[in-house]
Amino acid sequence: MNRTPASTTLTGVFYAVFAYGAWGLLPIYWKLFGVIPAVEVLSHRMIWSMVFLLSILTVQRRWPELRQVLRSRRQLLGLFITTSLLAFNWGIYIYGVNSDRVVETSLGYYICPLVTMLLGLVVLRERLNWVQWVAVSLAGAGVVIFIQDLGQVPWIALGLAFSFALYGLLRKMIAIAPLVGLAVETLMIAPLLLILVGAWELQGLGHFTATPGITLAFIGAGVVTSMPLLWFNNAAKRLPLVSLGFYQYLAPTLQLSIGVFLYHEPFTTTHGITFGCIWAALALYSANTVMLNRVKLHEQSSD
Questions:
Q1: Global pTM?
Q2: How many domains in the chain?
Q3: How far apart are the C-alpha atoms of 132 and 96, rounded to whole Å?
């Protein structure tokens, strides 16, 4: 059965909700690692992601697709850039957390959707209707209030926002199946990380075999890393970049909720204003998307 544009958009919405919902809940998973250094956790994330993705390709008998990408210099160059953006994004996140600037890192994930929408408007010439512009303005106002309360130029937040927004743009433009592309990305960086993990284990600094629970958590990190990225890349293929950017607000909002209600972190007035603006914008944008999809389906059924 051929997918209609409306059903394809709806599928993209589900993928976006799954991806950003999973990312929003990930802090609960990372709490399992306690005081283990973030660099070691991230290294295992990429290594086990590679193992998980290559296993899926094996089961689906899609190695010819992988070999085809590996023979294409143009596609490899594009994926090398996206891999570098991911590495930079995760690296600056680690720096922010280790330098006690967690608030600024969380701000980055609020700014990222606006950058994604900006790239969609400028680079891909996408358009917003007036309802969507109102929603974007509401979300932007919430972010501006957050920045003003921070009291300084948030360089870490800007680095996080622009690196991941550019990653989403490039993955949308590169004509590679999401699963295959992500597998190549992990293959590119995994050898370096294997060397690092091996060195830590030889020096007695690694934690892979510390306890059975930690070992399973490291291995499981590959799954919880890969699945949201696969959902994200599938969403990027089906949705306009401006729409994809808007759903990104789900992740930091869930993270904020977990921090406040589960881990009892402080919730300031500024958080409340930003939270309220973004959720009001999300409700407006989502309602408009549902209405437009119903119009599309009605038009298509009338043809």
A1: 0.75
A2: 1
A3: 32
